[in-house]
Amino acid sequence: MRILRKLAIAVTALALATPVALAPTAQAAAPVAQDAEQRASRIYISPWGSAKVRVSDSTKAWLIANDVKLGAIPPFTLDPDGYGFDMPIGSTAGDHLDEQGRIFYPGGITLNQESSQTFMELVPTWIRIMPQPGYSAGIKVNGQPLSEETLIAYTTPAEVIANGRPTLTGFTLDRVPFHVTSDSAALTKAYFGDGLKADSMFGTLTPRFDYVPTN
Question: What pTM did the predictor assign?
């Protein structure tokens, strides 16, 4: 029952971000640092774990039809079939929500279309908790920065909560669905000639947190 309570608290925090107290950006440096430490103590997630992403059948079909190759920027690692990737979390990666309601993941993914010589990098990477839960990233095209952060795919609090379950060492969110944003649809159409369909299934995210803190 204890692990179930921890799971419920953690999943609710991830889905709804109710413990987050955002600090005004105009605060002095010392109060901001102090507030950051206080926030981290309240919304700490896990010291170890990983997250698994698999693209949906519709995204896979789009990649194949447009001859776009998915790649991984370390420490992300690409699945052998090229249609999914793993990303680490933990004390040296993403284990806290930042002041913007995001969990940071080092690394990212790439999209490479040889026919148009278009190479897109989605880095850095965040799992965003609010205002809209989802996957966001910075965007570079052929080495040129295009966006500091764009919401690539979105999910909902209900979808997050519905997929949470405890494990022997913590908890996992099992294949949470993420959907293509209108920005991603427009972006892929502009640079690859054919866009992903807005609101279609982008893929699923399965983060595994291998320790739930007791405090």
Answer: 0.74
